[in-house]
Amino acid sequence: MQNFSRIRLTPIVAQARLCARPILRPLLPSNAFTRLSTTAAISRRLDLPALDKKWQEKWKSDAESPRPVVQSTEPKPKSYVLSMFPYPPGTLHMGHLRVYTISDVLSRFYKMRGHDVLHPMGWDAFGLPAENAAIERGVDPAEWTEQNIAKMKEQLRSISASFDWDMELATCAPEFYEHTQRIFLMLYEKGLAYQAEALVNYDPVDKTVLANEQVDANGFSWRSGAKVEKLNLKQWFFRITDFKEALLKDLDSLAGGWPDRVLSMQRNWIGKSVGAKVTFPVTIEGQDGEVNVDVFTTRPDTLYGVEYLALSLDHPIVLKAAEKDSALRTFLDEASSLPADSKAGYRLDGVTASHPLRKIDNESAHVQRELPIFVAPYVLSDYGEGAVMGVPGHDARDISFFKENVNPESITLVIGESDTSKTLVPAQDAKAFTQDGVLTSHCWKYQGLHSKEAATQIVNDLKQVGQADFKETWRLRDWLISRQRYWGAPIPIIHCGDCGPVPVPAKDLPVKLPKIEGEWLKGKKGNPLESSKEWLHTNCPSCGGPARRDTDTMDTFVDSSWYYLRFLDTKNKDAPFSPSVVQPVNVYIGGVEHAILHLLYARFIYKFLSQSELFPASAHADNSGAPPEPFKTLLSQGMVHGKTFTEPDTGRFLLPAEVDLTNPDKPLITGTQITPNVSYEKMSKSKYNGVDPTECATKYGADATRAHILFSAPVSEVLEWDETKIVGVERWFGRLWKLVLDAQHQLTGSSLAISASDLNAAGHAVSLPSSLQDLSDSDTDAVLATHNTISSVTTCIESNPYGLNTVISDLTKLTNTLSSTPPSSPLVYYLSLSALLRLLSPIAPALASESWELLHQPLIKDSTSLRSILSSPWPTNLLTDEQAEVLAARGGQTVAIQINGKLRCAVTIPRMMSPITSSQGKGPSQEEQDWIISRILETAEGKLWLREKNDWEKRRRVIVVRGCKLVNVVF
Ligand code: ANZ
Ligand code: ZN
What we know:
Layout: H1 13-18, H2 30-43, H3 48-64, E1 78-83, H4 94-112, E2 116-118, E3 122-123, H5 128-137, H6 141-158, E4 169-170, H7 174-189, E5 193-203, E6 208-210, E7 229-238, H8 244-249, H9 260-270, E8 272-284, E9 290-297, E10 308-311, H10 316-324, H11 326-335, E11 346-354, E12 370-375, E13 387-390, H12 396-406, E14 410-412, E15 415-416, E16 424-426, E17 438-439, H13 451-464, E18 468-474, E19 479-480, E20 482-483, E21 493-496, E22 500-503, H14 518-521, H15 528-531, H16 533-536, E23 537-539, E24 546-549, E25 553-554, H17 556-560, H18 563-566, E26 585-591, H19 597-610, H20 617-620, E27 631-637, E28 640-646, E29 659-660, E30 668-669, E31 677-682, H21 693-700, H22 702-711, E32 719-721, H23 726-747, H24 756-761, H25 777-799, H26 804-820, H27 826-840, H28 845-856, H29 881-889, E33 893-899, E34 902-909, H30 926-938, H31 940-948, E35 957-961, E36 966-970
Parallel strand pairs: 1-2, 1-26, 3-4, 10-12, 26-27, 28-32, 33-36
Antiparallel strand pairs: 5-6, 5-7, 7-19, 8-9, 8-11, 8-18, 10-13, 11-12, 14-16, 15-17, 20-25, 21-22, 21-24, 23-24, 28-31, 29-30, 33-34, 35-36
Helix pairs in contact: 3-28, 5-6, 10-11, 21-22, 22-23, 23-26, 23-27, 23-28, 25-26, 25-27, 26-27, 27-28
């Protein structure tokens, strides 16, 4: 851990008094002074970790005491803010900190906006990792998971995350998985859950079937690292493909709410391809007649360029040939574990294809040739027709395969920029021309047609002779949901010798997992459900005869495909949830690693359920308007990268102890004093760059940690975590704290009166006088800055939460404005500061809570009537647009203009109206500078000096300094 001393501010009351303004009464009322001095003893120093301790304890006891029933007269708008629930590994990481800070800020914001907010938390607690960890440690996965949940819950409290813990759920609890099983059976009843033999990925180490995405590009298991084998096994599937049209089409309704990138990842995964099925007649030596081989192609316009056919490893022709060809059998054995982009091929002896165009074109010599046929692992057996027409001239994979397996002298191009484009290119120089274009002289009567037109014509012509037809192909496959593992929801099916598979009757749910035996925990491999004899053997619910339970459990993606609906009704025993509570999630926040599968599965299950009796009738009415979608807005947050130190010569990762950070800007390798290389990389144990968020919160306080993680990057971008920069937040909080103490001092004894009920009810407890004529300059600045900040922060959180980082810079700026020229009237001081604190409270709840109390001590006699800032209303705009304009124009600000170092004139320009946030509090941003300069050029003096006496267009440098009070122009 880096060490540097943190600043601690120690403002002294006496100092504050020195800058007292005339409006302050010279003498404090004695009771106010007494109260001040008692609190002063504990609160003068800003100690953020101590504030956490105080407030977190209070929130915990508040949460445990019965909630007052608030009778609200008006129905509140509902908001459901959800962060993707974690798998409980026992320790919180920086990714968690980021996602939960974001969701916490949003949920606190909507609460203050008067919404009825649901912000629950639960545990994605089933799955292999818990099972493996339990085996390693010899403990029951249930116990291990429970301990981890308790630990993580404590850690979540330590970062001041406020979840609705009364809605907590864990997917491994029988009360939850009972309903996962119910949903399984609902799918089963509709024929949407079925068993089928499938060539599956089998991990011989973990002894389990893996989903395709759990196998890396080289064919190894994502978890155990074992070489994955292909086995044919009976598996359970969900028929997600029945919903493919809606899953694709309804993405359109999410535009604007979901990031475009995620929408296009979903589209690609569903993968609708429009093309044609083309039939190639194939002759096999020693066999009479021809057999037809169909291929799927999206580019029928390239048909004149076909050089070969390639078949998948389990194509019927290949399997047939393998019976007599032992070399082919060897190839197939080896090829099954080759990566999908492998160039390997096996040419089938005595098997050739004739070109389908021969049926219509007997002039072009090259379509009269017989084409070779290869077996190739790059052809997927479960896509299209499991066969490909190879067009080296126009497909990148085909050209490399062709060069590798045929060694041609030249490559034929049948499409080009124009119809006279070159058609033959020497193989060594050739690259595939993959765009659409115009058909070349190689293409008989189709020469000169554009790709699109040619494709249609060729397919139509071939259709006439029975050799092709238009066809759509989808990439989406049915969802393989069974796992041969223990730690998951058991599939609620009983297999009977007479009746076949029989659903477990609803009254017998849940099918609970049996307690597992010691032997298995000590490392016995395989599925313990198969060896739990008592559990396994049961009676058939239909005929009563002896039967066996299904020993598979469900993929954990099944749990997470519906958990967000359970949060709405966690106590419901009879059904997963009741139709009356159904509501989509308003904002869903999570990592981009779940952009495809989890979201797709959740969308599928939501659509399925929306047609069932579990949903309100309105949801399955035909003309209900918006299509059923579970997540209206999706915030997909970027990764958190850690500061990584490496030795420049060797690239070796350095341990924290090997780096001397006495000067955080100049790290040195201890001992050698060499400067290490610094980079930001994905946090990992081997790079020694991981950071523990709870340690950070202990050291700097949860508030500073939260503000820092929000500030460090826009939500969707990679965040480079640099702990040393947290000092920026600490300084800001220090300035804010000083302001609070100063305001407290000034308000003590002022005539400002505030009623607790106004405070609790309204966005502002007091209002500005109707005439703003008498505001002093500093008050005008404060009012305008506060007004603008309220509006920019509100708009950002509500309409552009991806820009949450700008909220921090807006709040920093307002703090700076108030600190540099404090308002002169207690009313304005109070208004600005109370608004600032309210805006801050979702981000830094402990600091805001403490400051809120301090600020109100002099104003509210009965402190018990002061509601916490966290349940106070969000500030509304201070001014009407018109007022804001009048104020901004009034008096204006004076800017001095220096030309080539000489002071030339001073002009008065309007005050800045809208807050501009990109400068992050470090001086005027480019936008602000541009704005100021345009205003200067509008003044007579500005024009005279910058346009007439000098040529503005020839300026070399323009610098805006001293809080925008001086502009330096160099010509
Ligand atoms: C000939 C061709 C020429 C192709 C060309 C492309 C470009 P998408 O868009 O993903 O649907 N293909 C068809 N079935 C395949 C399989 N089972 N395994 C691997 N590849 C297969 O891709 C469709 C294209 O992928 C098809 O169009 C086919 O190659 C290939 F210049 O046909 B094409
Ligand atoms: Zn039976």
